[in-house]
Amino acid sequence: MKITAAVTGVGAYVPDYVLTNAELEKLVDTTDEWILSRTGIRERRILKGENQGTSVMGIKAVQNLLAKTGTNPDEVELLICATTTPDMLFPATANIISNGVGITKAFSYDMNAACSTFLFALATGAQFIQAGTYKKVIVVGADKMSAIVDYTDRANCILFGDGAAAVLLEPNTDGYGILDQVLRTDGSGEAYLHQKAGGSRRPPTHETVNAKEHYIYQEGATVFKFAVKSMADVAAQVMERNHLTNDSVAWLVPHQANKRIIDATANRMGVGPEKVMLNIDRYGNTTNGTIPLCLADYESQLRRGDNLVLAAFGGGFTWGSIYLKWAYDGDKVAASK
Ligand code: UT7
Q1: Are residues 169 and 76 in contact, defined by beta-carbon separation less than 8 angstroms?
Q2: Which string of b and e fits 62-99 if b means at least 16 CB within 10 Å?
Q3: I need a labelling partner for 114 at 20 to 30 A (CA). Which of 142, 217, 241, 284 fits?
Q4: pLDDT averaged per 10 residues in sequence order, the chain, 337 residues
Q5: Binding-site residues, ligand 1, Cβ < 6 A
Q6: Residue 337: per-residue pLDDT
Q7: Which domains does the chain have, with CATH numbers?
Q8: Known catalytic residue: 214?
Q9: Contact, 38 vs 260, CB < 8 A?
C-alpha cells in the first residue's frame, strides 16, 4: 500500500502589532495608494519587544497546532523550521521551538531557501512519512522579517511582515496528502535578492552595520519578472502532469509576495480569483509564513479531497509548486476549536 504524507492539521500565530500603510507614509516617501495598487498590501504584523525572535511566533503556532490536533508533544518525531530569519545562526530555531513546546523525543533542524523554504521543507518532511520512517512530522514556516528590513528603504519596508504557521504531517493510505512536487533553484539569482553581510563571507562589523548591509537588498523589478514566470511555470507543470484542470483545482495557495505576481500565476493556470487564497492585504510578505498562514486562514473552507496547488518563489532564486490533496473537512475543525 502506498503511503502518502497528509496534512492533518494547521496552527498559526501572528503578532498583535499592526503596521498600516498610513504609518509607513510617516516613515518613508510613499502612499497608501502606491502600496495597495503595486502590491495589494494594506497592513502587516510586526513582532515588537526585546529579545523576541522568530521562535516566539513558531512556538505559538506549534502550540496552536498541537492543541487543535490533540497531539501530545511526545508523539512528534521530527520538527523542521523553515526560516530565513533564525533567532541566531545557531542553534537552530527549530530546536528552540521544540524546547518551547515540550517536544523532547524528536530531532529538529532549520531549512533556509528564502521564500520557498516552506515548500522545500514540506517536501522534505513528507519524504520521512512516505518512507515509513516517521508517523508525526511538524513543518513550521516562521519569519521575523522586520529584523532585516530597513525602515528607511521605501522599496522594501512596505513589503514584509512577521508571522508563523505550522502543519502536522501523518501517513495516509487513501491517496490524500502531498502527491507531487516540482522544486527548483537557480543560484545565479543571488545578485538580485540577498543580505550583503552578517554571514561567513562578510561577518558583521561596525562598518557593515553602518552601511546597512545586514538588511534585505532587492532589485525588485528583476525579482518580479523572474517570480511571475517561474511560479506560473511550475504551477502549470504540476497541473499538467497530474491532469489537473481549472475545474478540478479547488485552490491555488500562492506565496504572498505581491498580488500582481499571484494574479499572473492564477491567470496562467486559468484559475478564477474565487479559488485563490489571499491574505497579503493583512500580512504582507511573511516569507515562510505565507503559505501555511493561508492554509490556516482558509481551513474552515477546505474539504476532504480538495485539490490544492501550492506555489512559491524566493531569493536564491528558489521556486516550486506542490500538489496537495486535502485530507479533512476544515469546517469540523473550526467548529470544535
Ligand atoms: O518574496 C521574495 C520575492 N520578492 C518579490 O517577489 C518582490 C518582487 N518585486 C515586487 O513586488 C515589485 O518589484 C516591488 C513592489 C518591489 C516594486 O514595484 P515595481 O512596480 O516593480 O516598482 P519599481 O521598483 O519598478 O519602481 C517604480 C517606481 C520607482 O520610481 P521611479 O524610478 O520610476 O521614479 C521607485 O522609486 O516606484 C518607486 N517606488 C515607490 N514609490 C512610492 C518604489 N517604492 C516605492 C514606494 N512608494 N514604497
Answers
A1: no
A2: bbbbbebbebebeebbbbbbbbbbbbeeeebbbbbbbe
A3: 241
A4: 96 98 98 98 97 98 98 98 98 98 98 98 98 98 98 97 98 98 97 96 97 97 95 96 97 98 94 97 98 98 98 97 98 68
A5: 30, 34-35, 38-39, 115, 154-155, 158, 220-221, 223-224, 227, 257-258, 261, 285, 313-315
A6: 47
A7: 4-175 (3.40.47.10), 179-336 (3.40.47.10)
A8: no
A9: yes
